[in-house]
Amino acid sequence: MRILQASNIYGAGFGIPSISTCPKRHATIATGEALAKSGPIARKFSEQHSLKTGDVEKEGNSVVLEKKDFAVPRRRAMALIFSSFLLSNYELPKIACAQSVEFREYIDTFDGYSFMYPRNWIQVRGAGADIFFRDPLVLDENLSVEISSPSSSKYKSVKDLGPPQEAGKGVLRQYLTEFMSTRLGVRRESSVLSTSSRVADDGKLYYEVEVNIKSYANNNELAVMPQDRVARLEWDRRYLSVLGVENNCLYELRIQTPEKVFVQEESDIRAIMDSFRVNKIAA
């Protein structure tokens, strides 16, 4: 018996931050060996029938459960159909979340940076950033790289931004500026969650900043009475930035993810952040 489960799709719009960028040249992608994180998957099918480790396979982005020695009496067929329906709607999404995540490496030799990204993410062109990838299923989850223009300011080190705490405030101000709305009844709540610095294996100093932004909007912004204008939560997102300096430019890796998704994918997001490197451009 084969049961295929499609992943849940979270449909939502997403903001695309942008700052002034260097003159854009065509980027090149060098694909390295895919990195995989593996983990055991085990799930109980019912009290009478259980799936062994060998029964779980992966085909693309779907989880396939194989059970060859599975005989069902005719009078229990309806019960099996019902239990299969429950499994496909409630159990398989949990199994899908436990699948291993594979990464690819993106290397831009022209602009001088590299990072790892999930293998199933797709590149979006014309998004305003130097490079932009997004999750094809969770549309509110994406990453991008922004590069400052050396004609406007020349950076020697990420320390030119001040200590990490000051850099965090600047990152938050930039996001709030980009997310300004002319709609009536829109309110933003924001905070800097954490700031830190680290020296990577390339010997360069990087800043890491995490902020949270919530957007609220009135359900009826044109209502006359205040009690008729009820604010509701539109979205709740976490924005993570990695800042580095090279080639007199400030590089920023930006990751956007819904807060509820971040809780599930934190280790993968941290891996992307740790992989970001800025490189000297060959003369």
From TrEMBL:
GO MF annotation list: calcium ion binding
Start and end residues of each PsbP C-terminal domain: 102-278
Domain of life: Eukaryota
Any single GO BP term: photosynthesis
Localization per Swiss-Prot or TrEMBL: Plastid, Chloroplast thylakoid membrane
Signal peptide residue numbers: none
Gene Ontology CC: chloroplast thylakoid membrane; extrinsic component of membrane; photosystem II oxygen evolving complex
Name by which UniProt lists this protein: PsbP C-terminal domain-containing protein
Originating organism: Anisodus tanguticus
